[in-house]
Write a structure and sequence with these properties.
alpha/beta, Rossmann fold, 2 domains, about 15% strand, AB_hydrolase_1, Alpha/beta hydrolase, AB_hydrolase_sf
Length: about 250
């Protein structure tokens, strides 16, 4: 964690944070990016409220508002924080977050468990194909283990007994929502539902492929769009970009 930063990337899934790394490496070439992680223990009740409260404590002494960003459940935490503490957020960037922010991959997992009489491992294998596309047997086995661990560690409140919903709506600061056209969790309809709460400065951007973790497979393409969005709301970055162009 750096002492001074412009962007705060949230991660609430220690086992899946590896899939953020390529995009973060790209973004770090243009902005000062810090990572904030939330680790939920097995003894804690699943709730994003604690994560939001801890994030508020972390940013309490930070003097400037930040560009807040996150993928999936981490994006849901970022969205909830931005609504509760708007003065601390300069812009909000969400990846694979539906207009119904509780519609995460965990919800799809539990929905399948409720709908079909198949085992946990079978549903997780289906989830790997949905979230990452067809992978080799060895990679599929590793991804099944990672998703299984994420079900235990995630602050998602979904369970076999109940699927929860969170409030829909927008935010007061500029917002960018990114997705993939072949993401079965946040499909184009779920993504475009955001338009009901958009302001003129808000943006939806979709990549044609990449499934749920499209930012892992196409970090440069995703990163270019995010940096362009940040440039509009970060004058200092525009100055740096212009200086770099003039000296290159």
């Amino acid at each position: 964690m750096c002492d001074s930063f412009d962007v705060l990337w949230l991660n609430a899934s220690p086992i899946l944070k590896r899939f953020d790394k390529p995009l973060l490496q790209y973004l770090s070439e243009y902005m000062r990016v810090a990572q904030w992680e939330y680790h939920q223990t097995q003894d804690e009740a699943s709730s994003i409220d604690k994560a939001v409260a801890l994030l508020d404590e972390f940013l309490e002494s930070y003097p400037d508002s930040v560009h807040l960003a996150g993928h999936g459940m981490s994006g849901t935490i970022a969205l909830t924080f931005a609504r509760r503490f708007p003065k601390k957020v300069r812009s909000l960037t969400l990846l694979s977050v539906a207009a119904q922010p509780a519609n995460t991959w965990h919800a799809h997992y539990y929905f399948q468990r409720q709908l079909f009489s198949i085992s946990r491992e079978q549903v997780l294998a289906n989830s790997v194909r949905s979230l990452f596309g067809t992978q080799s047997p060895h990679t599929t086995k590793k991804l099944i283990a990672a998703l299984d661990k994420d079900l235990e560690q995630s602050p998602s409140q979904h369970s076999l007994f109940k699927l929860v919903h969170l409030p829909k709506g927008g935010v007061s600061m500029p917002m960018m929502v990114c997705g993939s056209q072949n993401d079965p969790v946040v499909d184009p309809n779920a993504l475009n539902d955001w338009l009901n709460w958009f302001k003129p400065e808000d943006i939806i951007w979709e990549y044609p492929k990449g499934y749920h973790f499209f930012h892992y497979f196409y970090p440069q393409q995703v990163g270019e769009q995010i940096v362009s969005f940040w440039q509009r709301h970060h004058p200092q970055l525009l100055e740096v970009s212009a200086l770099t162009s003039s000296t290159s």
